[in-house]
Amino acid sequence: MPRVVADDVAHDPSVVPASIARQETEIVRVDLETVEKEALLDERASFRFWTFNGTVPGPLVRVRVGDTVEVYLKNREDSWLMHNVDFHAATGPGGGAELTSCAPGEAKAFRFKALNPGLYVYHCAVPPVAMHVANGMYGMILVEPESGLPPVDREFYVMQGEIYTTEPFGSEGLLNEDYDKLLNERPEYFVLNGHVSALTDHYPMKANVGETIRIFFGNGGPNHVSSFHVIGEIFDRVYLNGSVTKPPQTDVQTVVVPAGGSAIVELKLEVPGRYVLVDHSLSRVERGLAGWLDVEGKEAPDIFEPIAS
């Protein structure tokens, strides 16, 4: 589980559950607590986030196809609002939302069988659903296929989100959510893993030359499509829409991920340096959406080097 800091909701992208080695199915317990907390939005502003387990996104859940997933949801007593959870990986009405609707101080549970392998989003589904999602209530569950995923050197967990505030981007102080901007799909902030600079100043991703990394990427939305891109790299393999039952696409520059959708990308790191994660709708960089992948190791002049002018 990521380390939770009182004034920071960012989820460390390197905190990923280990791959599943077992061949038999199991009952897997998932404990989620809905936590509303005032925390940093950027270096000048704060925001009252609504979260699962105190981070945005909530924890990455990892199970095997055929497992029975038991979800225990608790809404903290100091919450202002009702919350629940809808698992896109669940087959059943509301994905469990109706069965887990909790007023502050309540706790409820349900179980589902993970019938379909893939990478799926979960989110709060209390009306207005878009507001609960925009304020931070989303995460993902990976349902591994029976054969598992191919081994890689490192895995990371990254999700994109939108934040709608009454105050314009760059304001100071405690900012307020804005329902009209939400309905008109005009976010002031676009973020990776919770807030501005979460994956730059706070938790930059780190790896080494020669390693192959995997990124579990999701788009919490609630409204805008993401064009996920890593500047200076090419995705060697892409599992589109989080589907792991067909061969991945190869040699892909940018991946389109809809709101409430996902993708799994893999890339081998050949050249050291800083690579920037962006949404290639590049105006969103100016509204806070960027992350760093810092790669250390020996230079590779046969692949990339300056030319004296």
From TrEMBL:
GO terms for molecular function: nitrite reductase (NO-forming) activity. Its EC number is 1.7.2.1. Binds 1 Cu(+) ion. Homotrimer. This is Copper-containing nitrite reductase. It catalyses: nitric oxide + Fe(III)-[cytochrome c] + H2O = Fe(II)-[cytochrome c] + nitrite + 2 H(+). The keyword rRNA-binding does not apply. InterPro entries: Cu-oxidase-like_N, Cu-oxidase_fam, Cupredoxin, NO2-reductase_Cu. Belongs to the multicopper oxidase family. It comes from Neoaquamicrobium sediminum. Its cofactor is Cu(+); Cu(2+). Residues 41-147 form the Plastocyanin-like domain.
